[in-house]
Amino acid sequence: RGPRRGSPAAPPRVRRDAAARLAAEQEVENLSGLSPNPEKDIFVVRENRTTCLMAEFAAKFIVPYDVWASNYVDEGHNTSRGPEASWRLSRIQFTYDTSERTYFKDAVSPGKHTASSHRLSALVTPAGRSYECQAQQTISLVSSDHQKSVQLLLSEVRLQPFDIPADFVFSEEHKCPVDQREQLEETLPLILGLILGLVIVVTLGIYHIHHKLTASQVQIPRDRSQYKHMG
Ligand SMILES: *[C@@H]1O[C@H](CO)[C@@H](O)[C@H](O)[C@H]1NC(C)=O
Ligand SMILES: *[C@@H]1O[C@H](CO)[C@@H](O)[C@H](O)[C@H]1NC(C)=O
Fold this sequence. Notes:
This protein is an alpha+beta fold. The chain has helices spanning about 10-25, 175-230, and strands spanning about 25-30, 40-45, 50-60, 95, 110-115, 130-135, 135-145, 150-160, 175. Strands 1, 2, 3, 4, 5, 6, 7, 8 and 9 form a 9-stranded mixed β-sheet that branches. A hairpin with a 5-residue loop joins strand 7 and strand 8 (about 150-160). One 2-acetamido-2-deoxy-beta-D-glucopyranose (NAG) binds near residues 30, 32 and 33. Plays a role in short-term synaptic plasticity in a subset of GABAergic neurons in the brain.
């Protein structure tokens, strides 16, 4: 869909009223300053004074765009708004402006673009649980700028909409498969180490018992033979 020019004044006003009403009911608290990691975002969304979403994540966008000149730059990074979450993350929209020269240098026809997810089904988590994933995952968005593919890199994610037991308290976590595998890889050497230690102890024990038994078995006949000789 191309940009619409000269649209009537009524639709924007309606949209603004809706936004104002939404703002009255919904409150977004930005607690990102609490994290020691400057890349991490922490947001709490409240509706009618009830916390309905808690989200922690580090987000990075990789945005391809067309440039002038020969020193080709194909990446722009930006950290921005949190995902609009239903409990399965089904939609992400990211707006960016290639005329912002801090992120985009020498852009051809600079302007605002929107990158959206297409048939997204991410962070799928059982109801009443929080989603946790330390590992990085990539979500592809399609941009209004010539259908370019924008990559969203998410890491250190902890997210929970609804069923929140208390403010700033997440329910039991549901870990993403990558984190589960990493946890196994961390505990496996420990388990193997314990088993090896146990095998060594058992081996030493058996050796010790065997040594004692053979020593006493050998000694008895020798004593007897000595008796025989004496006799
Ligand atoms: C949230 O707060 C952090 C640091 O306090 C700030 O850098 C960031 O721009 C804020 N984000 C939004 C969307 O307001
Ligand atoms: C919040 O209050 C508004 C109006 O009072 C109501 O329409 C809305 O459903 C309420 N939302 C929740 C999550 O209770």
